[in-house]
Design a protein that fits this description.
The protein is mainly beta and about 400 residues long. About 5% of the residues lie in helices and about 40% in strands. The protein contains four helices and 30 strands.
Protein backbone atom coordinates (compact mmCIF):
# COMPACT_ATOMS: atom_id res chain seq x y z
CA UNK A 1 0.00 0.00 0.00
CA UNK A 2 1.29 3.50 -0.83
CA UNK A 3 -0.18 6.91 -0.19
CA UNK A 4 -3.81 7.20 0.85
CA UNK A 5 -6.30 8.35 -1.78
CA UNK A 6 -6.41 11.74 -0.04
CA UNK A 7 -2.64 12.16 -0.29
CA UNK A 8 -2.60 10.98 -3.91
CA UNK A 9 -5.23 13.49 -4.95
CA UNK A 10 -3.38 16.34 -3.30
CA UNK A 11 -0.18 15.28 -5.01
CA UNK A 12 -2.06 15.48 -8.32
CA UNK A 13 -3.26 18.99 -7.52
CA UNK A 14 0.19 20.16 -6.44
CA UNK A 15 1.91 18.65 -9.50
CA UNK A 16 -0.60 20.09 -11.94
CA UNK A 17 0.79 23.62 -11.90
CA UNK A 18 3.62 25.41 -10.08
CA UNK A 19 2.59 26.78 -6.71
CA UNK A 20 2.87 30.43 -7.69
CA UNK A 21 0.79 29.86 -10.82
CA UNK A 22 -1.73 27.91 -8.76
CA UNK A 23 -2.39 30.97 -6.62
CA UNK A 24 -3.47 32.84 -9.72
CA UNK A 25 -5.27 30.03 -11.53
CA UNK A 26 -6.84 27.72 -8.93
CA UNK A 27 -8.91 30.21 -6.96
CA UNK A 28 -12.49 29.21 -7.61
CA UNK A 29 -14.57 26.17 -6.72
CA UNK A 30 -15.66 23.64 -9.31
CA UNK A 31 -19.28 24.34 -10.15
CA UNK A 32 -20.14 20.99 -11.75
CA UNK A 33 -22.78 18.84 -10.07
CA UNK A 34 -20.20 16.08 -9.59
CA UNK A 35 -16.71 17.61 -9.75
CA UNK A 36 -13.86 15.34 -10.82
CA UNK A 37 -11.44 16.96 -8.41
CA UNK A 38 -11.75 18.89 -5.13
CA UNK A 39 -11.72 22.67 -5.15
CA UNK A 40 -8.36 24.42 -4.99
CA UNK A 41 -6.59 24.73 -1.61
CA UNK A 42 -5.13 28.09 -2.72
CA UNK A 43 -7.26 31.20 -2.36
CA UNK A 44 -4.99 34.11 -3.29
CA UNK A 45 -2.69 36.49 -1.48
CA UNK A 46 -5.15 38.31 0.80
CA UNK A 47 -8.41 37.94 2.72
CA UNK A 48 -11.00 38.92 0.12
CA UNK A 49 -14.70 39.55 0.78
CA UNK A 50 -16.85 38.24 -2.08
CA UNK A 51 -20.36 38.74 -0.63
CA UNK A 52 -21.51 41.12 2.11
CA UNK A 53 -25.26 41.59 2.31
CA UNK A 54 -26.42 44.88 3.86
CA UNK A 55 -27.75 44.56 7.38
CA UNK A 56 -25.84 41.36 8.13
CA UNK A 57 -23.04 43.06 10.05
CA UNK A 58 -23.89 42.04 13.61
CA UNK A 59 -21.62 42.51 16.59
CA UNK A 60 -18.88 39.96 16.38
CA UNK A 61 -15.65 38.86 14.80
CA UNK A 62 -14.35 35.97 12.76
CA UNK A 63 -12.08 33.46 14.51
CA UNK A 64 -9.85 31.34 12.30
CA UNK A 65 -6.29 30.06 11.93
CA UNK A 66 -3.89 31.08 9.18
CA UNK A 67 -1.22 28.86 7.69
CA UNK A 68 -1.82 25.17 7.03
CA UNK A 69 -3.51 23.12 9.75
CA UNK A 70 -1.91 19.97 11.11
CA UNK A 71 -5.12 18.26 9.94
CA UNK A 72 -4.50 19.22 6.31
CA UNK A 73 -2.65 16.05 5.23
CA UNK A 74 -0.79 17.84 2.43
CA UNK A 75 2.91 16.87 2.44
CA UNK A 76 5.12 19.94 2.18
CA UNK A 77 2.30 22.46 1.85
CA UNK A 78 3.02 24.01 5.25
CA UNK A 79 6.59 24.81 4.22
CA UNK A 80 5.40 26.38 0.98
CA UNK A 81 2.64 28.32 2.71
CA UNK A 82 5.06 29.78 5.25
CA UNK A 83 6.77 31.72 2.47
CA UNK A 84 3.55 33.37 1.29
CA UNK A 85 1.17 35.98 2.75
CA UNK A 86 -1.24 34.34 5.18
CA UNK A 87 0.93 31.27 5.39
CA UNK A 88 2.37 31.63 8.88
CA UNK A 89 0.58 29.61 11.61
CA UNK A 90 -1.48 32.00 13.75
CA UNK A 91 -4.74 32.44 15.61
CA UNK A 92 -6.57 35.35 14.01
CA UNK A 93 -9.51 37.47 15.16
CA UNK A 94 -10.76 39.62 12.28
CA UNK A 95 -13.74 41.79 11.45
CA UNK A 96 -15.95 41.03 8.45
CA UNK A 97 -13.72 43.04 6.14
CA UNK A 98 -10.83 40.73 7.01
CA UNK A 99 -8.98 43.36 9.06
CA UNK A 100 -7.11 41.66 11.90
CA UNK A 101 -8.10 42.76 15.40
CA UNK A 102 -5.89 40.35 17.34
CA UNK A 103 -3.29 37.78 16.41
CA UNK A 104 -1.34 35.07 18.21
CA UNK A 105 1.63 33.27 16.66
CA UNK A 106 3.00 30.11 18.32
CA UNK A 107 6.69 29.50 18.97
CA UNK A 108 8.77 28.50 15.96
CA UNK A 109 8.22 24.91 14.93
CA UNK A 110 4.71 24.70 16.40
CA UNK A 111 1.29 24.90 14.79
CA UNK A 112 -2.09 26.13 16.03
CA UNK A 113 -5.58 25.09 14.99
CA UNK A 114 -9.23 24.91 16.07
CA UNK A 115 -9.24 28.47 17.40
CA UNK A 116 -12.54 29.62 18.93
CA UNK A 117 -14.31 31.03 21.98
CA UNK A 118 -15.74 28.75 24.66
CA UNK A 119 -17.00 29.03 28.23
CA UNK A 120 -14.62 28.09 31.06
CA UNK A 121 -15.51 28.59 34.74
CA UNK A 122 -18.40 30.84 33.77
CA UNK A 123 -16.44 33.20 31.52
CA UNK A 124 -15.86 33.45 27.79
CA UNK A 125 -12.31 32.44 26.91
CA UNK A 126 -10.15 31.74 23.87
CA UNK A 127 -9.24 28.12 23.20
CA UNK A 128 -7.09 26.36 20.63
CA UNK A 129 -4.89 23.37 19.93
CA UNK A 130 -1.12 23.88 19.81
CA UNK A 131 1.63 21.42 19.02
CA UNK A 132 3.46 19.64 16.23
CA UNK A 133 2.18 18.05 13.04
CA UNK A 134 2.43 14.26 12.84
CA UNK A 135 1.33 12.57 9.59
CA UNK A 136 -1.96 14.39 9.11
CA UNK A 137 -2.87 14.85 12.74
CA UNK A 138 -1.30 16.57 15.71
CA UNK A 139 0.47 15.91 18.97
CA UNK A 140 0.19 18.72 21.48
CA UNK A 141 -2.13 20.25 24.07
CA UNK A 142 -5.38 22.12 24.37
CA UNK A 143 -4.96 25.71 25.57
CA UNK A 144 -7.45 27.92 27.43
CA UNK A 145 -6.55 31.63 27.49
CA UNK A 146 -7.96 35.05 28.31
CA UNK A 147 -8.74 37.79 25.80
CA UNK A 148 -5.05 38.72 25.56
CA UNK A 149 -3.88 35.13 24.92
CA UNK A 150 -2.58 34.74 28.47
CA UNK A 151 -2.81 31.03 29.28
CA UNK A 152 -5.30 30.11 32.02
CA UNK A 153 -5.10 26.32 31.71
CA UNK A 154 -3.45 23.65 29.57
CA UNK A 155 -5.09 20.29 28.90
CA UNK A 156 -2.77 17.38 28.12
CA UNK A 157 -4.11 13.82 27.86
CA UNK A 158 -0.59 12.37 27.98
CA UNK A 159 0.52 9.47 25.83
CA UNK A 160 0.30 10.47 22.17
CA UNK A 161 -0.79 13.95 23.23
CA UNK A 162 -3.82 15.97 22.22
CA UNK A 163 -4.66 15.77 18.54
CA UNK A 164 -5.61 18.80 16.47
CA UNK A 165 -9.10 17.64 15.52
CA UNK A 166 -11.10 18.28 18.70
CA UNK A 167 -10.84 20.36 21.88
CA UNK A 168 -14.34 20.98 23.21
CA UNK A 169 -15.23 22.22 26.71
CA UNK A 170 -18.43 21.01 28.37
CA UNK A 171 -20.60 22.83 30.95
CA UNK A 172 -19.47 20.44 33.73
CA UNK A 173 -15.80 21.46 33.45
CA UNK A 174 -14.65 18.63 31.23
CA UNK A 175 -12.72 18.70 27.96
CA UNK A 176 -13.31 16.41 24.99
CA UNK A 177 -10.14 15.69 23.02
CA UNK A 178 -8.97 13.43 20.23
CA UNK A 179 -5.67 11.53 20.40
CA UNK A 180 -3.88 9.32 17.87
CA UNK A 181 -1.81 6.60 19.60
CA UNK A 182 0.07 4.21 17.33
CA UNK A 183 -0.62 0.51 17.92
CA UNK A 184 0.24 -2.84 16.35
CA UNK A 185 -2.62 -4.84 14.83
CA UNK A 186 -3.59 -7.45 12.27
CA UNK A 187 -4.41 -5.34 9.22
CA UNK A 188 -5.25 -8.08 6.74
CA UNK A 189 -8.90 -6.93 6.73
CA UNK A 190 -7.80 -3.76 4.91
CA UNK A 191 -5.05 -5.31 2.82
CA UNK A 192 -2.25 -4.72 5.30
CA UNK A 193 0.19 -7.03 7.07
CA UNK A 194 -0.60 -9.34 9.99
CA UNK A 195 1.68 -7.34 12.28
CA UNK A 196 1.01 -3.89 10.87
CA UNK A 197 0.86 -0.49 12.53
CA UNK A 198 -2.13 1.85 12.70
CA UNK A 199 -3.23 5.06 14.35
CA UNK A 200 -5.97 4.12 16.83
CA UNK A 201 -7.90 7.36 17.16
CA UNK A 202 -9.42 7.73 20.62
CA UNK A 203 -11.88 10.05 22.34
CA UNK A 204 -10.60 11.29 25.70
CA UNK A 205 -12.57 13.11 28.39
CA UNK A 206 -10.45 15.10 30.87
CA UNK A 207 -11.45 16.95 34.03
CA UNK A 208 -9.82 20.33 33.33
CA UNK A 209 -9.39 21.34 36.99
CA UNK A 210 -7.57 18.17 38.06
CA UNK A 211 -6.19 16.88 34.76
CA UNK A 212 -7.73 13.48 35.54
CA UNK A 213 -8.71 11.28 32.62
CA UNK A 214 -12.38 10.31 33.01
CA UNK A 215 -12.93 8.33 29.82
CA UNK A 216 -10.98 6.85 26.93
CA UNK A 217 -12.93 5.42 23.95
CA UNK A 218 -10.92 3.58 21.31
CA UNK A 219 -12.13 3.36 17.71
CA UNK A 220 -10.02 0.24 17.12
CA UNK A 221 -11.67 -1.54 20.06
CA UNK A 222 -15.23 -0.79 18.92
CA UNK A 223 -15.30 -0.39 15.12
CA UNK A 224 -14.30 -3.23 12.73
CA UNK A 225 -11.31 -2.48 10.52
CA UNK A 226 -13.30 -3.64 7.51
CA UNK A 227 -15.65 -0.65 7.99
CA UNK A 228 -12.90 1.70 6.81
CA UNK A 229 -13.48 3.37 3.45
CA UNK A 230 -9.97 4.81 3.14
CA UNK A 231 -7.42 2.15 3.94
CA UNK A 232 -4.23 3.92 2.94
CA UNK A 233 -1.45 5.26 5.11
CA UNK A 234 -0.97 8.69 6.63
CA UNK A 235 2.80 8.53 6.58
CA UNK A 236 5.52 5.93 6.50
CA UNK A 237 4.08 2.47 7.04
CA UNK A 238 1.34 3.44 9.55
CA UNK A 239 -2.29 2.94 8.47
CA UNK A 240 -5.14 5.34 9.27
CA UNK A 241 -8.41 3.39 9.00
CA UNK A 242 -10.51 5.57 11.37
CA UNK A 243 -9.39 9.22 11.63
CA UNK A 244 -11.61 10.64 14.39
CA UNK A 245 -12.26 14.32 13.73
CA UNK A 246 -14.97 15.48 16.12
CA UNK A 247 -16.46 14.69 19.51
CA UNK A 248 -19.54 16.37 20.94
CA UNK A 249 -22.43 15.54 23.27
CA UNK A 250 -25.91 14.42 22.33
CA UNK A 251 -28.94 15.77 24.28
CA UNK A 252 -28.58 12.90 26.80
CA UNK A 253 -24.87 13.44 27.42
CA UNK A 254 -23.63 10.58 25.25
CA UNK A 255 -20.62 11.10 23.00
CA UNK A 256 -21.19 11.87 19.32
CA UNK A 257 -18.09 10.70 17.48
CA UNK A 258 -17.30 11.33 13.81
CA UNK A 259 -14.89 8.95 12.06
CA UNK A 260 -13.88 10.43 8.73
CA UNK A 261 -12.45 7.28 7.20
CA UNK A 262 -15.52 5.12 7.89
CA UNK A 263 -17.87 7.90 6.68
CA UNK A 264 -19.96 7.35 9.80
CA UNK A 265 -21.16 9.09 12.97
CA UNK A 266 -21.48 7.09 16.20
CA UNK A 267 -23.47 7.76 19.37
CA UNK A 268 -21.46 6.27 22.25
CA UNK A 269 -22.51 5.46 25.82
CA UNK A 270 -19.78 7.18 27.92
CA UNK A 271 -20.22 4.68 30.77
CA UNK A 272 -20.00 1.40 28.85
CA UNK A 273 -18.36 2.46 25.59
CA UNK A 274 -21.17 0.74 23.66
CA UNK A 275 -22.26 2.20 20.33
CA UNK A 276 -25.93 3.17 20.75
CA UNK A 277 -26.50 3.99 17.09
CA UNK A 278 -24.54 4.52 13.89
CA UNK A 279 -25.42 6.91 11.07
CA UNK A 280 -23.83 6.24 7.68
CA UNK A 281 -20.91 3.97 6.89
CA UNK A 282 -21.00 0.33 5.86
CA UNK A 283 -23.09 -0.99 8.75
CA UNK A 284 -25.49 1.74 9.96
CA UNK A 285 -28.04 0.96 12.66
CA UNK A 286 -30.27 3.91 11.71
CA UNK A 287 -32.42 3.64 8.59
CA UNK A 288 -31.72 6.85 6.68
CA UNK A 289 -34.03 8.47 4.14
CA UNK A 290 -32.74 8.11 0.55
CA UNK A 291 -31.80 11.80 0.31
CA UNK A 292 -29.23 11.50 3.11
CA UNK A 293 -25.84 11.08 1.46
CA UNK A 294 -22.54 12.05 3.08
CA UNK A 295 -18.96 10.86 3.13
CA UNK A 296 -15.65 11.71 4.88
CA UNK A 297 -17.57 14.12 7.10
CA UNK A 298 -16.43 16.49 9.88
CA UNK A 299 -17.91 18.39 12.85
CA UNK A 300 -20.95 16.28 13.79
CA UNK A 301 -22.99 17.88 16.58
CA UNK A 302 -26.59 18.30 17.70
CA UNK A 303 -28.24 21.69 17.18
CA UNK A 304 -31.35 20.77 19.19
CA UNK A 305 -32.85 17.73 20.91
CA UNK A 306 -33.32 15.79 17.69
CA UNK A 307 -31.27 17.41 14.91
CA UNK A 308 -27.71 16.41 14.08
CA UNK A 309 -25.71 18.79 11.88
CA UNK A 310 -22.54 17.73 10.08
CA UNK A 311 -20.13 19.06 7.48
CA UNK A 312 -20.36 16.69 4.53
CA UNK A 313 -17.00 16.78 2.75
CA UNK A 314 -18.21 14.24 0.18
CA UNK A 315 -14.61 13.78 -0.96
CA UNK A 316 -11.51 12.05 0.33
CA UNK A 317 -9.36 13.65 -2.34
CA UNK A 318 -9.10 11.16 -5.17
CA UNK A 319 -12.65 9.90 -4.59
CA UNK A 320 -15.20 12.68 -4.96
CA UNK A 321 -18.90 11.81 -4.66
CA UNK A 322 -20.33 15.29 -5.17
CA UNK A 323 -20.17 18.85 -3.80
CA UNK A 324 -19.55 19.42 -0.10
CA UNK A 325 -22.40 20.68 2.05
CA UNK A 326 -23.75 21.25 5.53
CA UNK A 327 -26.46 18.71 6.41
CA UNK A 328 -29.11 18.81 9.12
CA UNK A 329 -30.50 15.34 9.94
CA UNK A 330 -33.34 14.51 12.32
CA UNK A 331 -32.43 11.51 14.49
CA UNK A 332 -35.06 9.26 16.08
CA UNK A 333 -33.12 6.73 18.19
CA UNK A 334 -36.31 4.92 19.27
CA UNK A 335 -37.65 4.39 15.73
CA UNK A 336 -34.04 4.05 14.54
CA UNK A 337 -34.54 6.44 11.66
CA UNK A 338 -32.70 9.43 10.20
CA UNK A 339 -34.47 12.04 8.05
CA UNK A 340 -32.88 14.88 6.07
CA UNK A 341 -34.01 18.32 7.22
CA UNK A 342 -31.78 20.55 5.08
CA UNK A 343 -28.75 20.28 2.81
CA UNK A 344 -26.81 23.52 2.24
CA UNK A 345 -24.28 23.66 -0.59
CA UNK A 346 -22.17 26.63 -1.63
CA UNK A 347 -23.45 28.34 -4.81
CA UNK A 348 -20.05 27.69 -6.42
CA UNK A 349 -20.32 23.94 -5.82
CA UNK A 350 -17.26 23.84 -3.57
CA UNK A 351 -15.81 20.42 -2.81
CA UNK A 352 -13.61 20.19 0.28
CA UNK A 353 -11.40 17.12 0.62
CA UNK A 354 -10.49 17.74 4.28
CA UNK A 355 -11.54 19.78 7.32
CA UNK A 356 -14.59 22.08 7.60
CA UNK A 357 -17.29 23.00 10.15
CA UNK A 358 -20.56 24.83 10.71
CA UNK A 359 -21.83 27.04 13.54
CA UNK A 360 -25.35 28.18 14.45
CA UNK A 361 -25.58 31.94 15.02
CA UNK A 362 -28.06 33.68 17.37
CA UNK A 363 -29.92 35.27 14.44
CA UNK A 364 -30.61 31.85 12.89
CA UNK A 365 -27.87 32.04 10.28
CA UNK A 366 -25.25 29.34 9.79
CA UNK A 367 -21.55 30.21 9.68
CA UNK A 368 -19.40 27.79 7.65
CA UNK A 369 -15.73 27.07 7.13
CA UNK A 370 -15.07 25.12 3.95
CA UNK A 371 -11.89 23.64 5.42
CA UNK A 372 -9.10 23.00 2.92
CA UNK A 373 -11.04 25.06 0.39
CA UNK A 374 -10.14 28.55 1.67
CA UNK A 375 -13.63 30.01 1.97
CA UNK A 376 -15.75 31.22 4.88
CA UNK A 377 -19.49 31.69 4.36
CA UNK A 378 -22.69 32.62 6.17
CA UNK A 379 -26.15 31.46 5.10
CA UNK A 380 -29.58 32.66 6.18
CA UNK A 381 -32.19 30.11 7.36
CA UNK A 382 -33.65 30.18 3.83
CA UNK A 383 -30.27 29.31 2.33
CA UNK A 384 -29.32 32.76 1.01
CA UNK A 385 -25.58 33.45 0.96
CA UNK A 386 -25.25 36.62 3.06
CA UNK A 387 -21.47 36.61 3.58
CA UNK A 388 -18.59 34.96 1.76
CA UNK A 389 -14.84 35.48 1.91
CA UNK A 390 -11.72 33.87 0.44
CA UNK A 391 -8.59 33.29 2.53
CA UNK A 392 -5.07 32.59 1.24
CA UNK A 393 -5.23 29.07 2.70
CA UNK A 394 -7.94 27.03 4.36
CA UNK A 395 -8.71 26.99 8.06
CA UNK A 396 -9.57 23.81 9.97
CA UNK A 397 -12.63 25.48 11.51
CA UNK A 398 -13.96 29.04 11.66
CA UNK A 399 -16.34 30.73 14.11
CA UNK A 400 -18.16 34.04 14.54
CA UNK A 401 -18.56 35.54 18.02
CA UNK A 402 -18.03 38.61 20.16
CA UNK A 403 -14.77 39.24 22.00
CA UNK A 404 -14.10 37.83 25.47
CA UNK A 405 -13.93 40.44 28.23
Amino acid sequence: MGLSSEQQSRRVVLRAVPVVAALAVLTTGTAAAQPALPSSPFGGLTYTVNVQQPGEESDGYIYYTSGVSAAALVPGLGTIAGLLPGGQPANVIADRSGREIKRYEPPAGQDVSNFRTQIYQGRKVLTWWQGSTVAGHGSGVGIIADENFNVLATVDPGGAGADVHEFRLTPDGHALLTSYPQVTADLTAIGGPVDGKLFDTVAVVIDVATGKQLLRWSAAEHVPLADSQTTGKLGGDVYDPYHMNSISLDPSGNLVVSLRNTSAVYDVDPHTGDILWQLGGKNPTLTASPDIEFAFQHDAEFTDDSTLRLFNNNSSGLETRGPSSVEWIRIDPVAKTATLVRNQQHPSGLTTFAMGNAQSLPNGDTFVSWGMTPRISEFSPSGELVYDATLPFGTYRAYFDTLPS
